[in-house]
Specification:
Oligomer: single chain
Largest sheet: 7 strands, parallel
Low-confidence stretches: 309-316
Distance between the termini: 39 Å
Mean pLDDT: 88
Structural class: alpha/beta
Strand content: 5-15%
Shape: elongated
Number of strands: 12
Length: about 425
């Protein structure tokens, strides 16, 4: 999407702006000649994550903008206040705040240490609130000057559907805290002419965070690039702050509103397909679109119950042959110390229709798999019927889609669950 020049000269404060979505948003604005404050922690190169505030500044200047790199931990009120004051002193004001910094841990209640809980809440919810609070006096000045001030939070629409809480309640609470800032501040600041909106991706976005969570480079074909979020943010930030506020925007929907029809340029893999994209969390539209699949599945299950029943296998006794055993034989051929080193997780599987149990150990030795329970505690337990298990490993349905449509239940570390999807993709690429 082409730039219009509407952000020329605007002073934009971006948290978490040294890489990923934050940097992409900054670069988009820089093409207009915006003045960008990169507020992030990374001053020295990270061993696993690309970019620092200084490399980001160079990229922004190369794109046509001005940059002010600031070392900022959004948990530190003094650092935030000082960086905002430095921005005002350097650039003459402050017009836009992008609250992009976020911490994530897709773990259940028992597996979430309070240190991790506190980290997510102090960065996501408290950090967003604090940055907005410190910036507010200067955003009010921007409004008085008619400079169209905005706050934009990278956070999802608020939904009280249990599915968005059940596997990672701590993360959902922290992320929804950012969205609640939108809900409340949009009304509070409306009289001042300051817009407060949220933006969220419709699909998974290929960022360093995705790799860290276990997706790896292999999952790129299921992701879009951060450019789609940057283009959508540009549309939001150039709308009238006095009238466009309190919205929970989804990137693709926003771009469709302004006439974008071809989204292939945002594919993480240019040779990929739209239908292969992984839906993101927190969007009820995917649950609603899946209702027909659920109805069809329930109808099939009801018909199966009416059919003459075969002798039920003994609980926990896996069949000696069949599609499940075939899959695990394929998995066995892919096991290696390298895969164990990259994954570091133990998976347990309960096959709901035959009550059998299986395991995949990618944490110890050169890896192992087979019938029964793992020797060590599973990081993730999957419950799925035999047909859907085989379809997932064959690439006919994505685990994320199966989870959202109720065909797959996941208990444990969702980040580790993503690592399994990475292995499935590798198997499919290598032909089983």
């Amino acid at each position: 999407m082409l730039n219009t020049g509407k952000l020329a000269g605007k002073v934009i404060y971006v948290t978490g702006g040294s890489r990923g979505i934050g940097l992409s948003m900054a670069l988009k604005a820089a093409k207009d000649g915006a003045k960008i404050v990169i507020a992030a922690k990374t001053a020295e190169p990270h061993p696993k994550l690309p970019g620092t505030i200084y490399t980001a500044a160079k990229d922004i200047e190369a794109a046509g903008g001005q940059a002010l790199p600031c070392i900022v931990d959004v948990r530190d009120e003094l650092q935030i206040q000082q960086s905002i004051e430095e921005a005002v002193k350097t650039f003459g004001g402050l017009d836009i705040v992008i609250n992009n910094a976020s911490a994530i841990s897709l773990t259940g209640t028992q597996d979430t240490p309070m240190k991790t809980y506190d980290l997510m809440h102090s960065i996501n919810t408290r950090g967003t609130y604090l940055v907005s609070k410190c910036a507010l006096p200067y955003l009010k000045e921007s409004a008085l000057k008619g400079r169209n001030p905005h706050i934009l939070n990278n956070s999802p629409p608020l939904s009280m559907k249990p599915r968005w809480f059940q596997n990672h309640v701590a993360y959902t609470m922290a992320k929804y805290g950012m969205s609640m800032c939108v809900l409340g501040m949009a009304e509070e600041f409306k009289k001042d002419g300051i817009a407060v909106n949220a933006i969220w991706p419709r699909t998974a976005i290929m960022t360093a965070a995705m790799v860290m969570l276990g997706g790896g480079q292999e999952i790129i074909s299921q992701c879009r690039t951060p450019d789609i979020m940057a283009d959508a943010a540009y549309v939001i930030l150039t709308r009238d702050s006095k009238t466009y506020t309190g919205n929970f925007c989804v990137d693709e929907h926003i771009l469709r509103e302004v006439g974008v029809k071809d989204f292939s340029k945002y594919l993480g893999n240019p040779q990929g397909k739209e239908e292969d994209l992984m839906p993101d969390f927190f969007l009820d539209e995917f649950l609603e679109s899946a209702q027909q699949e659920v109805v069809e599945r329930q109808t099939a299950e009801a018909a199966a119950k009416e059919a003459p029943a075969a002798a039920a296998p003994a609980a926990g006794a896996p069949p000696a042959s069949g599609p499940i055993m075939d899959v695990f034989k394929q998995i066995e051929g892919h096991l290696s110390e390298e895969m164990v080193g990259k994954t570091r997780a133990v998976f347990a599987f309960t096959i709901s229709d035959d009550k059998s149990e299986w395991y995949l150990d990618l944490k110890n030795g050169a890896g192992s798999c087979g019938p029964g329970q793992p020797q060590t505690k599973a990081d993730v337990t999957f419950t799925v019927n035999s047909a859907n298990f085989a379809k997932m490993f064959a690439g006919k349905i994505k685990p994320t889609t199966a989870f959202m449509t109720g065909r797959l239940k996941i208990a444990g570390n969702m980040g580790k669950a993503m690592a399994l999807e990475k292995m499935m993709l590798k198997m499919q690429k290598e032909g089983g």
